[in-house]
Amino acid sequence: MKTFFFALFSALIAVAAPAGAMTLQSPDIHPNATIPLRFVLNGFGCTGQDQTPTLTWSGVPKGAKALALTIFDPDAPTTVGFVHYLLLDIPATATSTANAKGAVSGLNDFGKTGYVGPCPPAGDKPHHYIFTLYALDAKMPFGPTTTYAFLRFGIRGHVLAQASFTALYGH
């Protein structure tokens, strides 16, 4: 019986993450779970600590020259969503935000560089926060004034692989 469950579990893992597929995860924030308060904005009615979560990845394809990371809330009441974080020009050899030496933060939708935690309007249904890592076939001309729109335009035709997960927050 144990062998059956082990085989079933192994098969499910193989279907969920094909061999060689790029993956993105976090020891701090889990897929489809509520984002912990320490990563939530401290302001606009939210009382978080606005700490930047650690993200880790594996399976970056050969040929990748750089990586880009985004955190995006499509549920924000702006008609175009809300960008919480852009981390750009991440070395293709990096395996986490902790060892992404030389990476550059682009502009979030507060018009500042760096991470800004979630804080949807009080009373909204929990918002979805999509964490996405892109493996790119070229280094792009991104810097601290790069916006999400410029990133998405610039990477067209250069994405070798992408990985993402979604987490939730509401108050």
CATH top level assignment: Alpha Beta
- Largest beta-sheet characterization: 5 strands, antiparallel
Number of strands: 9
Oligomer: single chain
Fraction of helical residues: 10-25%
**Tally of individual domains:** 1
Tally of helical runs:
2
Structural class: alpha+beta
**Poorly predicted segments:** 1-17
Task: Name some characteristics of this structure.
171 residues; five-stranded antiparallel sheet; 2 helices; Phosphatidylethanolamine-binding Protein
Describe what you observe in this structure.
This protein is an alpha+beta fold and 171 residues long. It has a single domain, classed as PEBP-like (Phosphatidylethanolamine-binding Protein, Alpha-Beta Complex), CATH 3.90.280. The chain has two helices and nine strands. The protein has a five-stranded antiparallel beta sheet with strand order 7-6-5-8-9, with no helix packed on it. It has a two-stranded antiparallel sheet with strand order 1-4. The protein has a two-stranded antiparallel sheet with strand order 2-3.
Question: Gist?
Answer:
The chain has about 170 residues and is of the alpha+beta class.
How do the helices and strands line up, and which of them pair or pack?
Elements: H1 2-16, E1 23-25, E2 42-43, E3 46-47, E4 56-58, E5 66-73, E6 82-91, E7 104-105, E8 127-136, H2 148-154, E9 159-169
Antiparallel strand pairs: 1-4, 2-3, 5-6, 5-8, 6-7, 8-9
